[in-house]
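Worked Example 4.2. Consider the chain below.
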Amino acid sequence: MPQELPVDLSNLQSVPGARKERIRRGRGTGSGLGKTAGRGGKGQTARSGKGRPRGFEGGQSALVRRLPKFGFKSPFKRYYDVINVLQLENRYQAGETVEPESLYEKGLVASKNCFVKILGEGTLSKKLTVRAHRFSKSAIQKINSAGGKIEQIEVVAGTEGEETKGGGG
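Applying the procedure from the previous section yields the following structure tokens:
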């Protein structure tokens, strides 16, 4: 039984079958991929380059064009970064003020200027002053029962915040 050498850079070998030779097309009929090199006969598909457009169905009206248009994206839609009271419990000390700027500094929202909504998931035992654009009923109840204070930030028309999809938390 041959003695095995320790593996290092001087005696590395690939496992048999791990290295496969690349297919050489168009190198004679004996290779099996000579003459047309696996591209069939003549025409557009045999040529190099772009080929047919995405969704092309051979001249038949494409599915994308047969189906009706639908939907609408409102340019006035507001996206809110959502924060739960549990996150406030974990990141803030009693007596602190929670506002979009401090939420951004703690990495809970995507931007200082985003719209923030506070939801009531989790428990809150600290007395906090919370400034946000929206609050759920359960969040209001939990903040008030912990002795905290709620201040709703009014959004004046024309002073829109940054509309970010998703949140930072």
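The helical segments are 63-66, 85-91, 100-105, 137-145. The two ends are 60 Å apart (CA to CA). Compare this with Example 4.1 before moving on.
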